[in-house]
Amino acid sequence: MNTLAVKVVKKTREADDIVSFEFASADGRPLPPFSAGSHIDVHVGQGLVRQYSLCNDPQDTHRYQIAVLKDPRSRGGSVAVHDTIAEGDVVQIGAPRNHFPLVPAGHYLLLAGGIGVTPILCMAERLARTGAAFDMHYCTRAPERTAFVARIAGSSFADRVRFHFDSEEGGRIDLQAVLDAAPPDTHVYVCGPGGFIDFVTAMARARGWPDERVHFEYFGAAPADTSGDRAFEVKIASSGAVYTIPADQPVTLALQRHGIDIMVSCEQGVCGTCVTRVLEGEPEHRDVYLTDEEKAANDQFTPCCSRARSACLVLDL
Ligand code: FES
């Protein structure tokens, strides 16, 4: 996968456990353009690659900005980013990709939960710049855990943003009222922890919003329902060897135990590093990397998280 060398020109503490990083190209040339909702892969070191949404104005050509919540319960990426990446460092990143693009709409309702503010803020910048109608609600646990408060307060769209703090009496968002008050041609964009996204999407559905007007992005693929997972077989085309993939193991791990290494980085269906060709059988796609068309073709899959609908998959390995 192609990477780009960028220099860390600024590292800023934005709130408790949240720092932002500003990257500029290491050779001074403009960076590849991006659209609101895009994310980049950041090579954190020691083989770790993590995805972070860009949160600066997409108009910027000379810099990318990300913000990272330090989460000691995560798989190590956010802690490594906080602790090891410093101003002046050169890091490798992937070019921006967008799985969460803005679609044309009469009105936009932007809902951010915690660190999910990053793509939402980028969208607000874009919508404000293009004169689109939008409202933004930003929900966090407490003011001290809320990034970009001063930036929002000083922006041209400050009057369209409402903050909601769990720590304050009556501070929680009245989501039903917010959804019900939205103009009829509104599209909702929501990003945040899984529970926040599930809360919004379930409420929107209950209030009669069609799915095509509710857009969301999980950090990583949505947690899959693994309760019905069963074992299946994988056949290696080059050797003819057949291995059983247990119900509770990803394909990559099960094959690794037999000495077959598939390169991985995110291990959650986001980055595409592990994409493997499928010669026979039907995968059960659980990633957010492949497009719907690519998934429908069933000739490739992401073995770090996806499984099989058929009893056997023949892999081009
Ligand atoms: S390792 Fe990232 S999609 Fe599989």
Could you characterize the architecture of this molecule?
The longest helix is centred in the middle third of the chain and has 13 residues, at 117-129. This protein has 7 helices and 18 strands. It folds into 3 domains: 4-93, Translation factors (Elongation Factor Tu (Ef-tu), domain 3), CATH 2.40.30.10; 107-217, Rossmann fold, CATH 3.40.50; 232-315, Beta-grasp domain (Ubiquitin-like (UB roll), Roll), CATH 3.10.20. The two termini are 18 Å apart. Strands 9-8-7-10-11 form a 5-stranded parallel β-sheet, sandwiched between helices. Strands 13-12-18-14-16 form a 5-stranded mixed β-sheet. It has a 4-stranded antiparallel β-sheet with strand order 5-2-1-6. Strand 8 (134-140), helix 3 (149-153) and strand 9 form a beta-alpha-beta unit. With 317 residues, the chain is of the alpha/beta class. Bound molecules: FE2/S2 (inorganic) cluster. FE2/S2 (inorganic) cluster binds next to loops.
Considering the chains and any ligands shown, give keywords for the structure.
Rossmann fold; Elongation Factor Tu (Ef-tu), domain 3; binds FE2/S2 (inorganic) cluster; Ubiquitin-like (UB roll); 3 domains; 5-stranded parallel beta sheet; 7 helices; 5-stranded mixed beta sheet; alpha/beta; 317 residues; 30% strand
What's this, in brief?
The protein has 317 residues and is an alpha/beta fold.
Question: Which SSEs are present, and which pair or pack?
Answer:
Blueprint (H helix, E strand, L loop, with lengths): L3 E12 L2 E8 L13 E7 L2 E6 L10 E6 L7 H8 L5 E4 L13 E7 L3 H13 L4 E7 L8 H5 L7 E5 L9 H7 L4 E6 L2 H13 L7 E4 L14 E5 L5 E4 L5 H6 L19 E5 L2 E2 L7 H6 L2 E2 L5 E2 L3 E4 L2
Parallel strand pairs: 7-8, 7-10, 8-9, 10-11, 12-18
Antiparallel strand pairs: 1-2, 1-6, 2-5, 3-4, 12-13, 14-16, 14-18, 15-17
The structure holds FE2/S2 (inorganic) cluster (FES).
The site of FE2/S2 (inorganic) cluster has 14 residues, from loops.
